[in-house]
Design brief:
mainly beta; 60 residues
């Protein structure tokens, strides 16, 4: 399956019962390609946007 994200990936977790602290993108081999903490402001908004333009096609 190819990377279905063209540019910006939006993650909406406003109604989540879990507290999201960190986001990690991994390839099909389990290698971490991207990792970052979720800020207090992003948690308050309930939404995170990640720019995937720099990632090549692949399975994440």
């Amino acid at each position: 399956m190819p990377n279905l994200v063209d540019s910006i990936l939006s993650i909406d977790f406003d109604n989540s019962k879990y507290r999201i602290n960190q986001l990690i993108a991994m390839n099909s081999l389990g290698e971490s390609l991207f990792s970052r903490n979720v800020s207090f402001q992003e948690r308050s908004k309930g939404k995170v946007e990640i720019d995937f333009k720099k990632f090549s096609n692949g399975v994440y």
